[in-house]
Amino acid sequence: MTIIVHHLENSRSQRILWMLEELGLPYEVKHYRRDPKTMLAPRELRAVHPLGKSPVIEDDGLVIAETGAIIEYLVGKGDGRLGPPAHREAMQRWRFWLHYAEGSLMPPLFVTLVLSRIPVMGKVAMKRFQPMVDRHLDYVESELARSPWFAGDQMTAADIIMSFPLEAARSRAGLDERRPASLAWLERIHARPAYQAALAKGGPYAYA
What family classification does the UniProt entry report for this protein (predicted)? Predict the structure, then answer.
């Protein structure tokens, strides 16, 4: 049965389209546009899930929200492809990044977005907040210097879930040439045919 992806423009749900392309699973995209003034998701998404956020998928009557939960569901749907490697250490790394992306890295990046929209005082606050962001970016850089992908030598769903925060950091939070391993990783994921195919189907995405 075809999976339905409720996809909001310029959002984290782009990762779900990419994962579906990597897995070769059939899917349909239902597009939603942000409110041009508030940049929030439209109310129509609340009819799909009470939180009214994206990503949300539907599969055979089952509605699943939250990126990490969707990714784990799709790993099962894809017979384990892009899932945790068999080696115990690599498996733990996969699990760590799956939670770290949304639990630790995205919160400070979201704060940078909010501060960037506050005139004058936002810039002052950002100077004090940036060291926290830098600590995360330095940690990610050190890990990518160890291996080409987050969970080891092969690309997995850990890389897919980490794509949005690092793309956002490249756009607005100081990820630049001082961290070459992170930039090289971004180049690798952007060059993948499945990533490009997902962009074509997803529509506007400011971070690619």
Answer: Belongs to the GST superfamily.
Each residue's pLDDT, cut to its tens digit, for the chain (208 residues) gives: 799 999 999 899 999 999 999 999 999 999 999 988 888 898 999 999 999 999 999 999 999 999 999 999 999 999 999 999 998 999 999 999 999 999 999 999 988 887 877 776 777 777 888 999 999 999 999 999 999 999 999 999 999 999 999 999 999 899 999 999 999 999 999 999 999 999 999 988 888 6
Q: Are residues 126 and 172 in the same domain?
A: yes
pTM listed for this prediction = 0.93
Cα 73 from Cα 76, distance rounded (Å): 5
Q: In CATH, what number is assigned to the domain containing residue 174?
A: 1.20.1050.10
